[in-house]
UniProtKB/TrEMBL annotation:
Record protein name field: FAD-binding oxidoreductase
SUPFAM superfamilies assigned to the protein according to its UniProt record, in alphabetical order: FAD-binding/transporter-associated domain-like
Family matches, as Pfam families: FAD_binding_4 (PF01565)
The species this protein was found in: Kineosporia mesophila
Ranges for domain FAD-binding PCMH-type: 1-166
Region Disordered: start-end pairs: 215-234
Amino acid sequence: MDELRPLQDEEIAETLLRKNASRIVVRGCGTAGQDSWSLNEGTGLDLRGLNGVLFLDRRSGLAEVEAGVTLGALATLAERGGCVLPVRPPSLRGTVGGAIATDCFGGNHPSAGSFGHQVLWIDLMNARGRVHRLSPETTPERFWATVGGMGLTGIILRAGLRLQTVGSAAPVRRTVRVDSLDLAVQQLNENAFSGENLNSTVWTQRGGRGLMESEHQVQGQRLPRSARWGQREGVGRDTRRRLARLGQALHPAELGQSYPGLFGLVRHHCAIPLGADTTLARIFGLLKAARVGPVLTTLQRLGAGNPAPLSFPLPGWALALNFPSGRAGLPATLADVDALVMQAGGRLHLGQDSWLDAPGVAAMYPGLPGWRRVRDEMDPGRVFASNLAIRTGLVE
C-alpha cells in the first residue's frame, strides 16, 4: 500500500483525482484496530499533518479543529481555560477524525453519550475532491452514516465540536474494591448516571473481581488551599477517595494508569444489552473453563445510543477483554464468546475487530442496510475502503 501524508485539502483532492478508480484508506495515529486503517491494495492517506485547532472559545466551549489533531492536543488547550472533552476515551493518542469515524466513548457514556453526540458539523471530502458540510440538522442521514462509519463515506477534514466547561480543576477519584461481578454491576449502575460523573470503569483480572475507579467533578466548589494532588480524603478497607489531576482522572491510560503492555494484546470488545446481564457471567465462566484468562478486563456501563447505524454503544454493558497473543485455544474460545454475544443481541466493536465476518456484522448491526444505502449515495464508486471493510462486507 502506497502511503501519502498531505498537509492541505488541495493535496488530498489532487490525490483523489490522480488515483482515479484506486481505493483509498484514511488513517490517523493508528490507535484503532490495524485492519480499520490498512489496505492491501490501494493508497493510504495519513492525515496527521492536518492538525490545527482553528478556533476555540473557552467561554462557550465551541471549537473548530482539523481531523488530524490529537485528542490530547485538544484536551491540553481546552483544560487551560477550564474546558474538557465531554467524551472521555481511555487514551488521548487518537485523532478527532478517528474519534468521529469510530464514534469513540468513555466511562461517562450514560451521561455524555459517545463522541458523535458532541459533533456539531463535519467537513467531508468525497471521491471527486469536493467538500460538503454535514450536520445532524441539515444532512442527518449522511452525518450519522459518517459518525461511526469507519471512514467509508468520505474523508473527514474538519469538525465543529462542543466542549464542556467544568467547575473545579481537580476531580475527586473514588476507588472501590469489588469482589464479585454482581457487585461490579451494582457499583457501575450507582455511579454511571450522575451528571457529575467523569468516568466509571471496573478494572479486573479475575472474572469481575477487581477495582472500580470513578471520578466526579465537584461543580461550583473551590479547592482548599491545603489540597494536594493525590491527597486522600478518606481511607477505608474497601474505599479510597483522593484528588486527581484532571488529565489523569479523565484519561487514565495516558499516564500509565492502564495495565502495562496493554498495546499489542489481542483485544475483544463487546457490548451486551440490558436484560442480558447474565451473559457477562456466562462469558467469564466460558473463559475459566477454557483456561484462557485475559490479563486485563474492563467493564463499563453504556447508556442510550445515537442514530449512527454502525455506532458500537447500546444500552447495557461494554466488556473489553485483553489477551496475550498466541495463547493456545484463544481463537476457538473467542468464537464461542462471539456466539454468546450474538445470542444476547450484542455486538463487537468494529474499531477493535480483527476476525468478524460479513454475516456476523449483519447480525450485530441491524442498521447496516440503511447505512449501505446512504454510503452508496455518498461513495457510489466504493473508493473508500479498508481491510476491515472488505473482510466484513461493508465494502464489496
